[in-house]
Amino acid sequence: xxxxxxxxxxxxxxxxxxxxxxxxxxxxxxxxxxxxxxxxxxxxxxxxxxxxxxxxxxxxxxxxxxxxxxxxxxxx
Length: 76
Hints:
Layout: H1 3-11, E1 16-19, H2 25-39, E2 45-48, H3 50-54, H4 59-69
Parallel strand pairs: 1-2
């Protein structure tokens, strides 16, 4: 089975959590971390909104750090 199918079954969930880095630069990363930490147990997958990340200065690096924060069992 692919990673998503395994995760849907293990989490008993179809929830896909969108990750949009919107708002004040000083708070974006901590807010994304909080969203990941509070929803990882229930999420079948996380979906970073690439356009929002690319529209920010340092967005690629922020995206990389955000993806690393997601537990390895959860597809991105």
